[in-house]
Amino acid sequence: MRWALGLAAAAAAFAVILILFGSLFRPTIATEPAPRDPAAIAEVEALRDVSFDPANPIVIWRDVDYAEGPDAAWYPKHESPLLAERVAQGLLPPVQERVGSEPMVVEGVEGVGRYGGTWFRVAPNLRDISIINNRLAGAGLVRWSPYGEPIVPAVAKRWEHNADMTEWTFHLRRGMRWSDGHPFTAHDYVYFFEDEVLALNIGLRTYMEVQGELGTMTAEDDHTLRLSFPHPNPLLLSKLAGPAPYVAPRHYLEPLHPIKGDRDKIRASMQARGLPTPRANYQAVREASTNPERPSIAPWIRRTASDIPPVTFVRNPYYWAVDPEGRQLPYI
């Protein structure tokens, strides 16, 4: 018992010595923080400010006059050095031919950027990879601005509607191409709606529904798309600005369509992919986020077919947007 009490007393004495020893070498802590430069404080506070003027929201889309043609500052004339090398090697046409004469012109909130860099992102599952083609890099007829409104042009350079909003007409950009270089037309929208949504029940149809009834879609010509509805559809632009894609590369998918496709090509594709049915095969080939052969109009396209990480996407060489100085996007 005495032995145990002796150890406790020794331990207590040792603890007191440590406290006293530590107090001798403890740094002196000022009671007041060091003075800060008022200008530096103001700069930090400005960076923290997330307020905005609802009457003047940020808009990165730029309205330009396409009649200016090649003399305009925005006209496609620059590209990523990686793509410029492929042009020099004869593997790609010049940037003007790839982008087209009526590109979407956008300027980032920090101004004009420069080429280079890599965007790294963690995807917890294979399905999460697909959002690169919608939420993270959509390519719809129209698009949201950074704070939502206003809705601005994207694939459609302009649009109009009748008085009761039962008929909408979208005018597409001339010169747009799919990532494989094939011309992009209004017929690609009709194919998605009629041959995928209606014929195969693939893809969302809500953008074409009003009061539970479906509208109709017509390609007046290669660059004019008309949507007609049985009731007024004032929310159409908000639906179209969302993340879901509403278009498909008809030239690539139609030969593999399970109903109207080429039987020999379907069988060959099924055998190559090890899939049991024409519909299963079609579901696989139409998915841009997993099939690198499927053409896209998104800013990035998948590079390899393997799902073993890392999954890599590269610039779409035919992306149809530029900055105000004529640099083809994307920068990264």
Protein described:
With 332 residues, the protein is α+β, with helices and mostly antiparallel strands. Helix content is 28%, strand content 14%. The chain has helices at 2-25, 38-48, 81-88, 95-99, 126-129, 187-200, 236-240, 250-253, 263-273, 278-285; strands at residues 104-105, 142-145, 148-153, 156-161, 167-172, 209-210, 213-214, 216-221, 224-228, 300-302, 313-315, 321-322. It has a four-stranded antiparallel beta sheet, covered by helices on one side. The longest helix is centred in the N-terminal third of the chain and has 24 residues, at 2-25. The mean pLDDT is 90.
Q: Which strand-content bin applies to the residues?
A: 5-15%
Q: What is the chain-wise order of helices and strands?
A: HHHHEHEEEEHEEEEHHHHEEE
Stretches where pLDDT falls below 50 for ≥5 residues? none
Largest sheet: number of strands, sense, barrel closure: 4 strands, antiparallel
Brief write-up:
The protein is of the alpha+beta class and 332 residues long. The chain has ten helices and twelve strands.
Topology:
Elements lengths: L1 H24 L12 H11 L32 H8 L6 H5 L4 E2 L20 H4 L12 E4 L2 E6 L2 E6 L5 E6 L14 H14 L8 E2 L2 E2 L1 E6 L2 E5 L7 H5 L9 H4 L9 H11 L4 H8 L14 E3 L10 E3 L5 E2 L10
Parallel strand pairs: 1-12
Antiparallel strand pairs: 2-3, 4-5, 5-9, 6-7, 8-9, 10-11
Which key features would you list for this structure?
332 residues, alpha+beta, 4-stranded antiparallel β-sheet, 10 helices
